[in-house]
Amino acid sequence: MDSQEKSVSSVPWSGRVSRRKIVLGIGGTGLASLFLAACGSQAPAPTVAPAAPQAVPTTAAKPAAPGASRATPTAAAAAPTAAPTTAPTAAAQPTPQAATTGQNTAKEFVGAWPYELPPSGHFNTYIPHGITLGIYQDLIEMPLAKYYWASAKWLNLLGTEWSFQGTDTFTVSLIKGAKWSDGNPFTSKDVAATLWCQRLMRNVLWDYIDNVQTPDDNTVTLHMSTPSSVVERYMLELHITSAANYGPFADRAKALFTAGKNMDSAEGKALAADFQKFRPTDIIAIGPFKIDPSSITNAQLTLLKVATAWNADKVNFDKITLFNGETPTVTPLVLAKKVDYATHGFAPATLTALDQEGVRLQQCPTHGGAGILFNYGHPKVKSVFGDERVRQALTMAVNGDDVGLTAGGVKGTGVKTWAGFSETLVPLWLSADQLAQLGKYTYNPDKAASTLTGLGWKKGSDGVFTTPDGTRAEFDLLSITEYEDTMAIAQGTALAWTKIGVKTTVRSETFTQQPIDIDKGSFDLAMGGWGAADPHPHFSFVTDFFTHNTLAANNGGKGVDFPLQQKTNSIGQIDLQKAVDDSALGLDANTQKGLVDKVTRAFNELLPQVPVYERWAKNPMLDGVRVTGWLPASDPIYTNDPYNDSFVIMQLLTGQLKPV
């Protein structure tokens, strides 16, 4: 897939986010997957799908106003999921029904998503190695709502209405009469259990709330200890899990925190250990589809329609087949027109071949991208890269436009503002004067090398720098074997850094292991992600400063180990934990802009990672073989992120897509 899908247990919020969005840090967590919807009125929202950028992407999605965002479109949408956890091997791939017959009598939709085969793969969707299925998880453990970026409206799912009440309360009303796939009624107890499990997983939502109440079976009320507009998006995009599976852990978490203890206490550590060992026998679904456990093979699995689901009649397909695999495995299937939709990061040559075959390639922003992470907990890495001036020099050494083009075939996607969040959102949150205060790290390898020389670095006869304390600037860069676009970014960056005298060698491992090794600190440099597919920069800052850092505790490590107490030239001393939380304070986006600017300036100066490029996806959509009804390429729905608010899942849930 793209360089923006991540692994489940290191992201900041509540659903599960796309594989890459978790692996590379763009999104949320088992903790892994949340977003934002309400932030306050901004500039006009785009009304057409964005075109491929030629210099700097200019499409900006409008954040929803806290009061106005509760307009109620009446269908369904999608949220990202956590990352699978084992590299699947290629296997014989059956031909989906109706691939050549001209009529899809099986009413089958065919996609692709990597997952881990049992017994390593399991049904605890909060933790690593869970069989979570990216965008398709929205069809199983459905969220309360999904967001239309262009219109700043919501697609109601399990939530019927919601509002901020007073200054410290957020209340959601739930649909009535819905049942889980096991026959149990869906109630507020399920939502509350989900929230307490998310607290167990250190979900950032709990930085803003301190209690959950369920006054009746169809109402959930959050008390905001720190009122913030982002509570709305955190809450609504949460993947809801069944209390029948997770209730006992939710009860233990509630008792723990009510007693004034936390996850670092002895009781908290014991609870976390037990939760990591928990293996449900099944994923209980509240959406219109459910995994058929008997269908899980190394090659594929099947989601079957839940006939008793509350919205089963709105979905026009009876089953969804998902091929298992990353880009190398899925590429031939897409080229053979055996897949109706894929989000993988395909090589430029593959995209060209698909275009020549007449396969539609939907261009869309992903609102984040790939960057280089540093292991500040490693003495040598800290000694060499601990000075932000070194990281600033390395940023100038890479031509993000060229490297991005090599990775994904899209022009002009190198980072331009180094703000820590998407270039598409920058104009909505930062004024021209604020932008002018940011450091500019335009491609200039000569200046990069001279900056290092000015810091006392000396280049040896072999062209490799040595730092003033005698440390040789030679490191490994940990990438992901299966991610072709990520490998291209890694190789391009390593070549650029080696040319200026920082010898960088790319090594790679499977996509299921790389994020875990980052969290455990088993790396020098690593491919990671910056930004997040959410309209409010707060979520991007969570990725930039917390994912693979403080949230690495969910995988038992310290990750990049970047200190959140920092001294800067631009804004003085800063507590980044507090500043990121504060960036979403209150319910007025205009007030929040000044807080966003503060964190932006800190990121821009400190560059805790080196952001290389922003990914714009080109996702194949196959029309007329098994599926028809795709909204036209110019439709504003394609301003949505393809993962966090998947336009494909939304079209499935609203009945827009139909079998041929």
Per-chain topology:
Layout: H1 19-23, E1 108-112, E2 145-148, E3 153-156, E4 159-165, E5 169-174, H2 188-200, E6 209-216, E7 219-224, H3 230-236, H4 243-258, H5 266-277, E8 289-291, E9 300-305, E10 319-323, H6 327-335, H7 348-356, E11 360-374, H8 379-385, H9 388-396, H10 400-408, H11 426-429, H12 432-436, H13 445-454, E12 458-459, E13 465-466, E14 474-480, H14 484-500, E15 503-509, H15 514-519, E16 525-531, H16 537-545, E17 565-568, E18 572-575, H17 576-582, H18 589-606, E19 609-621, E20 627-628, H19 647-653, E21 658-659
Parallel strand pairs: 1-10, 14-15, 14-16
Antiparallel strand pairs: 2-3, 4-5, 5-7, 6-7, 8-9, 9-10, 11-16, 11-19, 12-13, 17-18, 20-21
Provide keyphrases for this structure:
alpha+beta, Dipeptide-binding Protein, domain 1, 2 domains, 4-stranded mixed sheet, 27% helix, disordered N terminus
Fold and architecture overview:
- The chain has 660 residues and is α+β, with helices and mostly antiparallel strands.
- It has helices at 19-23, 188-200, 230-236, 243-258, 266-277, 327-335, 348-356, 379-385, 388-396, 400-408, 426-429, 432-436, 445-454, 484-500, 514-519, 537-545, 576-582, 589-606, 647-653; strands at 108-112, 145-148, 153-156, 159-165, 169-174, 209-216, 219-224, 289-291, 300-305, 319-323, 360-374, 458-459, 465-466, 474-480, 503-509, 525-531, 565-568, 572-575, 609-621, 627-628, 658-659.
- It folds into 2 domains: 8-84 and 115-277, Dipeptide-binding Protein, Domain 1 (Dipeptide-binding Protein, domain 1); 378-615, Dipeptide-binding Protein, domain 3 (Roll).
- The chain has 19 helices and 21 strands.
- α2 (188-200) packs across α4 (243-258), α10 packs antiparallel against α14 and α16 (537-545) packs antiparallel against α17.
- It is globular and about 70 Å long.
- The chain starts with 18 loop residues before the first helix and ends with a strand.
